[in-house]
Design a protein that fits this description.
By secondary structure, the protein is mostly helical. It has helices at about 50-75, 75-85, 95-110, 115, 145-165, 165-180, 185-210, 220-225; strands spanning about 1-5, 15-20, 25-30.
């Protein structure tokens, strides 16, 4: 055995390492029997209170996430609501949530007073949460005579499709009736005036049309009488 210079010769060491000489090539450090081992300074043997609290919070969070996942898996409608909310534009969310909260609160109050009041509320499958807005500034080029004439022709052709398909016609009547609830009286009067203009244009066009030529042939008996 050969002491390692600078280490084994120091007094007061609990551990001693020796260099074993197993030959001209193999040499290794070994510990002397009975030598103690010491832990690195500053290492805590037990978990700190902060670590235990963080572990408990993590466990609570995982349990909540597991419960939500199970609820989503068993409730298809809840999953659809969350999907719609995530797809909703961020700036629309406060308004939409406020409308839903208001409507659901009214529905709950209505259910509690249905019998004494004799009035109940029901979901409206045709309700809309968005309304169309038109800019006050528009491109005049889209409202010249030719553009409006082409748009009118397309509208009349689409009107033929609407009128001749019973299902579409029924849906159109319900839609135009509901549309009247979303505009004020001045807008209705403007629409009414335009409808009168349409009727006048139809009457004028009928007057300007040449009389229809009858394809019926004169009766043979009348021809014999004239001759």
């Amino acid at each position: 055995m050969i002491d390692v210079p600078g280490y084994l010769s120091r007094p007061g060491r609990r551990k001693r390492a020796v260099l074993r000489d197993d030959g001209p090539v193999k040499r290794r450090l070994t510990l002397v029997e009975g030598a103690g081992q010491s832990r690195p300074g500053g290492m805590a043997e037990k978990s700190t209170p902060e670590g235990a609290e963080a572990l408990e919070q993590l466990q609570t969070t995982l349990e909540a996430a597991l419960g939500l996942a199970n609820e989503l898996a068993g409730d298809e409608l809840l999953g659809r609501i969350i999907s719609v909310f995530r797809a909703m534009p961020t700036q629309d969310r406060p308004v939409i949530i406020g409308v839903l909260e208001r409507e659901v609160t009214g529905r709950l109050l209505s259910r509690a007073t249905e019998k004494p009041v004799g009035q109940s509320t029901h979901p409206n499958p045709n309700a809309r949460l968005y309304v169309r807005a038109h800019d006050s500034v528009f491109d005049q080029r889209h409202f010249d005579r030719d553009e409006m004439m082409i748009a009118d022709i397309r509208a009349m052709r689409i009107a033929c499709l609407i009128r001749n398909v019973p299902e579409i016609y029924s849906t159109w009547k319900a839609a135009i009736r509901e549309a009247m609830d979303h505009v004020d009286e001045s807008t209705r009067r403007v629409a009414e005036e335009l409808l009168h203009d349409v009727l006048a244009a139809i009457a004028d066009a009928r007057t300007a049309d040449p009389p229809a030529v009858s394809d019926e042939t004169p009766d043979a008996g009348e021809g014999n009488k004239r001759s």
